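Sample 3 of the quickstart, ligand 5-phosphoarabinonic acid:
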Amino acid sequence: MKLDYTFMTEEAVEGGIGELACPSAAFDSVIGGMGKGWQQWCDLASDEEIEKIAEFSAPICAKSDSVVVFGIGGSALGVEAVANALLHLHHNELSRAKRNAPKLYVEDNVDPDRMSALLDVIDVDNSTFIVVTKSGETSETLSQFLYIYDLLKRRLGDSSKEHIVAVTTIGKGTLYNIAQREGFVTFGIKEGVGGRFSVFSPVGLVPLACVGIDIKALIEGARRAKRYCTQKENNPALIMATLSVRAYEMGRNISVMMPYCDSLRLVSDFYAQLWGESLGKIKDGSIKVGQTPVKALGVTDQHSQIQLYTQGPLDKIVTFIKVKHFKTQQTIPSNEGEPSFLMGKTFNELIAAECDATAFALKKAGRMNMTLTIDDLSAGSIGELLTVLMYETAYAGAILGVNTYDQPGVEEGKKATFAMMGRAGYEEKLKEITAKSGKYISEN
Ligand code: PA5
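Result:
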């Protein structure tokens, strides 16, 4: 893992950041909080826990047609980011023999067409449904679970329970109660591990192991990153957080995450949730803070958003993610009839050059940017990368002085949904919602 932040500094970019002083109070507060309260995500799974999950998952990986994850937000985005990074880019389209694992579907929406489309492509009777919800109450996840469990019971009777795995808080919530009553295999989520920081808990590890991902190597990468993300010097997470917050204070209200690698496309979604939900807060009762995360993909978005990033408002920073060694190497063949400078070069060289070229073009236009380079697309490197992003967010929250771990804005929406869907106990909320008068354009 290498962080190059030259183009964030005033030496390279006009209007860049001067001397970089990492705030030691923020560092001390993150380090002091590790393993306590909401920072229990810093305590990574033990070898014993990993072994238990791997053992449970092996038969599912060997036999299931599909593994379907029902979860949303932090209960889905980590799994999606890791799976997209490590599985074949067209994993579900490969034959079973080539995949050597079940197909994977992470269903994080309640669009009715999506549920019906899912049922068209999986063998329901031979699939495993992993229901992930820390609260055990989230409407989206519960409704998906209720739908599929009813279908399974009608098709398979008593054995339907063998197709459901619950990942939730032990002893609390609707999903836990149902799981106990029905006898589902259940994995617990620790009280002090919030959704967006839970990818290395059973939330991420159970589904990932079920599709054959080496969760031991993933955690080893996370352990490696934890070592350098908790040291005072040469700590990429602390430096990135300090630079981002400094840039935010200088009016860069937007933080673009732009991997130059399709396998890392969903790492941007993972980052967007971490950054947005953790840092977008009201501080000290009235000060509204937070840098808006934007997801982009190199080189694709060079032909879409880069014009705006280069010449539009001076309100963004960009973090590029590069990969030193892709899974494959592809060479552009020679064509003597039409000689081209591209001949004999590799796609690998081209994508790397395009990333560096974009970073240069942005810095030339006075736009701050930094580049994080990972070695390869192995489980260890992905474990490292996601850990760096989680520590970066923790440090940024501490520097900004916000509560990184709550999400009152999300909770309000969840409660309003309960009210609108007629849940008992939310009658007052429903009155509050319906009391509002609206302005409408009548249907045309
Ligand atoms: O990061 C978070 O805490 C949220 O995004 C939650 O993960 C999301 O709202 C889902 O919550 P739950 O796991 O309780 O269903």
